[in-house]
Design goal:
The protein has nine helices and nine strands. The longest helix is centred in the middle third of the chain and has 16 residues. Strands 1, 2, 3, 4, 5, 6, 7, 8 and 9 form a nine-stranded mixed sheet that branches. It folds into two domains: 209 residues, Rossmann fold (3-Layer(aba) Sandwich), CATH 3.40.50.1820; 58 residues, no CATH class. It is α/β, with parallel strands linked by helices. Strand 8, helix 7 and strand 9 form a beta-alpha-beta unit. It is globular. It comes from Devosia albogilva. InterPro entries: AB_hydrolase_1, AB_hydrolase_fold, AB_hydrolase_sf, Epox_hydrolase-like. Keywords: Hydrolase. GO terms for molecular function: hydrolase activity.
Length: 278
């Protein structure tokens, strides 16, 4: 696997992570249906470009182990930065990882150099689905209620990897196997019932002045595409890109494209970021 593994003990948890390269830090925050492995290609690209790439499994995912105790993903991220003696970092997040990056930027603006948000969650954001999308959500709910773990994993692969309006199996091969393994590990872990929910961020996104690259796949949920458009209009220093033919996890579906956009953004940050201001 790309990078050097590390472990970080926080209360009753041991966070498992990877780091690669030297330079200014870029911390990668995975989606809620993945783990740190969704970012391996981006970590390698960032490290080769002279950045210190760090990714970790949050509680409830991947190789991280955690007791069912009160916790905050925000506090865990802050503890990770402190453990690496990092004052400020670029945060790259997909889906729930993007929501965490936004929450962190609102709470600790001085510790956030830049944001890359992919199909991002936003704490407190509205959610609506089309009739077509609702059908796959119902299939997901049915598999969950029946306790069909394998079925749930397959439905979520269709939902998030292929895209809710796409043909099931659109993305195959090693990429699909990786998704099923990452999401399967998360589904199988014991539920953590004491997470501290961060405050509403949806009404405050306009306060985030940090240089931000927004990405969304055009095969993703319609609500996430609409959210992407809202953020691009509301965040004062955001540059927005729609990825054609990609769904919710473009870092593994179209890694070369995501890498090129990420490196362009990181290069702009080093140069002052003017080309990413609208």
């Amino acid at each position: 696997m790309v990078g050097d593994p590390f472990e970080l003990e926080i209360d009753g948890a041991v966070l498992a992570g990877l780091e690669l390269g030297e330079g200014l830090p870029v911390v990668f925050l995975h989606a809620g249906v993945c783990d740190k492995r969704m970012w391996l290609s981006q970590m390698e690209a960032a490290a080769e470009a002279g950045w210190h790439a760090i990714a970790y499994d949050r509680r409830g995912y991947g190789e991280t182990e955690s007791a069912d105790e009160p916790f905050s993903h925000l506090d865990d991220l802050e503890a990770l930065l402190d453990a690496f003696d990092i004052h400020a970092a670029v945060l790259v997040g997909c889906s729930m990882g993007g929501g965490l990056a936004l929450d962190f930027a609102l709470k600790h603006p001085g510790r956030t150099i830049g944001l890359v948000l992919v199909g991002t969650s936003v704490t407190g954001a509205p959610w609506s689905t089309t009739e077509e999308e609702r059908a796959i959500e119902m299939a997901e709910e049915d598999a969950w209620e029946r306790g069909d773990i394998d079925g749930l994993n397959r439905v979520q692969a269709h939902e998030w990897l292929d895209g809710p309006r796409a043909q099931s199996g659109r993305v195959g091969g090693a990429v699909r196997e990786l998704f099923l393994d990452m999401n399967g590990k998360a589904i199988a872990k014991p539920q953590l019932t004491q997470e501290e929910v961060p405050p509403d961020a949806w009404r405050r996104v306009g306060e985030v002045n940090t240089p931000t690259l927004l990405m969304v796949g055009d095969e993703d949920f319609s609500a996430l595409i609409e959210r992407h458009e809202h953020l691009s209009e509301t965040m004062p220093n955001a540059f927005a890109v729609v990825l054609e033919g990609a769904a919710h996890i473009p870092s593994i579906e179209q890694p070369e494209l995501v890498n090129s956009l990420l490196l362009e953004f990181l290069d702009a940050l080093e140069g002052g970021g003017d080309e990413f201001e609208e």
